[in-house]
Amino acid sequence: MTGAEEALVAAITPAPMREQVLAWTTINSGTGNLAGLERMAAELAAAFAVLPGTVALVEPEPVAATDAEGEAQPLAHGRHLVVRVRPQAERRVLLTGHMDTVFAADHPFQASRLLDERRLNGPGAADMKGGIALMLAGLVAFEATGPQLGYDVLINSDEETGSASSAALIRRLAEGKAAALTYEPALPGGVMARARPGSGNFAAVVTGRAAHAGRNPEDGRNAVVAAADLALRLSRARHAALGVNASRIDGGGPGNMVPARAVLRFNLRPRGPEQQSEAAALLDRLLADVVAEHDVAIRLSGGFGRPPKPIDAGTRSLFALVAKAAADLGEALAWQDTGGVCDGNNIAACGVPVIDTMGARGDCIHSPDEYLELDSLVPRARLTALVLHRIERGRPAWGASA
Asked: Which of 5, 127, 152, 160 is catalytic?
């Protein structure tokens, strides 16, 4: 590293990040907890105000969800934090994270505690309040160098449920960016995520015909049976490049009535664009088959909110830059494909090179055993600062898109 780079990373210390994570994990910011998300957004707005840009809380886009009766209902979300620094700069990048967690306001996992000197167990500690803290620390250090690189920061409130109310905002902010860094926690061992599948959440509303279960069942059309049949057909279509998870069936009623309504919810995970096209054709065929066999009607809602994220030349070049910076900081980085999805999928679909596991190390995310490795905060914050510094200076060159 150059002398300037050594001075850049030396300025990053652990205390501010530790304090922020401890404070932020006391705030329940489950995706559906609007009051908690508002508190979290206010805390983040105050924290990011140290940067030389504008800070705004952006209203979520309207979103509807299918309820247990098969009706579309509005689904409220929290506001999204957007920070814009040097918007007129010739070269700009995007940094993203999320303030929401999977732990609802009534979930028993609400408090943080130190498991030992290295590990903090807490809701969202790794996923991703630790990542937001180290992102900010890296940006603060970067700003001390007097940079000309411009950037936007997005911290959305709905990533854990698919970013439906922030997807359009992600697209707008990704437009024209040279690169993107997303602060999902690293995979076990500090490994970076490489390719990701797509993900689509669907609800199939099945409408049959009610009848007396004893007197004239033959006149009925059992919606629950049809929904179960569709779930089985979907599950049998699963293969290595197309994940299928039938997750819930709502419907039914008294034992003496043939049920006329059921709602099947399921998730599809295509490995690549070809499998997403295959999945769309599969849905058309299976729905037609179930409608014909059971004499029911099916209305499908939902879609592929997370496009597949294959790896292109631009992202390979960006990873090479990140890996070289990590090596210069004393950490060997590897990357591997993963089955999870995140906002990196949406950014990559905009044609922007993205590394989406720039966050902290930890494990057991989405469970009460979630923990953050506290000693990963400083190295990952230093990595952010050094990567931004090298993107600005083009050292080393990392692709034509830069």
From this structure: 160
